[in-house]
Amino acid sequence: MTRDTHPSGAPWRNFYGRFKGKGLRPSQEAYLDEDLAKLSPGKVGWEENPERSPLDLQALFGDKPVWLEIGFGGGEHLVHQAAANPEVGIIGAEPYINGVAMLLGKIRTAGVSNLAVHPGDARDLFDVLPDGSLSRAFLLYPDPWPKKRHHRRRFVTPEHLEPLSRKLKPGAIFRVATDIPDYVRQTLQQVPQHGFEWLAEGPEDWRQPWGDWISTRYEQKAFREGRTPHYLTFRKR
Ligand SMILES: C[S@@+](CC[C@H](N)C(=O)[O-])C[C@H]1O[C@@H](n2cnc3c(N)ncnc32)[C@H](O)[C@@H]1O
Predict the structure, then answer these.
(1) Ligand 1: distance of its center to the CA of 78 in Å?
(2) Could you write out the DSSP letters of every residue in 131-172?
(3) How high is the mean pLDDT in each 10-residue block of the chain (237 residues)?
(4) For residue 47, what pLDDT is reported?
(5) Which terminus of the chain, N or C, has fewer Cβ atoms within 10 Å?
(6) Is 131 one of the catalytic residues?
(7) Is 2 exposed, middle or buried (0-12, 13-18, 19+ CB in 10 A)?
(8) What is the whole-number distance in angstroms between the Cα of residue 76 and the centre of ligand 1?
(9) Is the dihedral of CA 116, 117, 122, 125 positive or negative?
């Protein structure tokens, strides 16, 4: 990997997170070698699809509605939703390869088959997903970037929200969870500017998790460190 590219071949896109952490266990290396290619949503990488041709979601999931989870971390929520919603096809995007390896282990254990995995930046997927193709998107505990000068790195910025909005169908649901009050502020300011309405009617709507929620690794850390989750639900107009 050169400084200018991700292993997928994508151009460098000001991604400030981590691609790889501590060493992978041999079992995790095996999941990556044996399972990842089979779970690909199609030609997402720049080397294999330099024209950025649209993905064939019909070939991937048939007529199932398609959901997207951005930054799935260890994959607990992604696998939980896939198991609970077999009538849906779900794509997960996560550049951190250790998280991808954790997800693959969970997929083997759960035996779910309605999942596709992009081991990279969600923006690569936005390039190749057909417009209006997604019925739901999840952004759960996005990287907080607490320093003010780093707020423009946050996911809830036009660079990400504009293409995400285009990929969602009218009426599609976009869920955001965060434990950072200033991230709530920026989300409530930015997301409605990209064609979404916030569905909250009262405080319980953002204080209580969604009925089908499973707590993620990052949320558990937030609880341990005394931070309060917020659950924000938007609908694409
Ligand atoms: C704070 S972690 C939360 C992980 C998980 N959602 C959870 O709740 O445990 C944020 C994750 O978003 C991923 N991420 C950051 N930018 C991303 C992008 N552009 N596309 C996809 N994932 C991204 C990071 O690699 C990281 O794993």
Answers:
(1) 12
(2) TT-EEEEEEES-----SGGGGGGSSSSHHHHHHHHHHEEEEE
(3) 50 65 89 95 91 96 98 98 98 96 97 97 96 98 96 97 98 98 98 98 96 98 98 98
(4) 85
(5) N
(6) no
(7) exposed
(8) 13
(9) negative
One-letter identity of residue 5: T
Rounded Cα gap, residues 103 and 81, in angstroms: 13
Pocket test for ligand 1, best of 76, 94, 164 (most atoms within 8 A of CB): 94
What is the per-residue pLDDT for 41? 97
CA 54 to ligand 1 center in whole angstroms: 24
How far is CA 226 from each of CA 219, 220, 223, rounded to the nearest angstrom?
A: 10, 10, 5
Q: Tally the C-alpha atoms within 13 A of residue 2's C-alpha that lie toward its C-beta.
A: 6
Question: Model-level pTM?
Answer: 0.94
Of residues 143, 182, 205, 212, which has the active-site annotation?
143
CA distances from 207 to 57, 105, 175, 178, 184 (A): 35, 31, 13, 11, 12
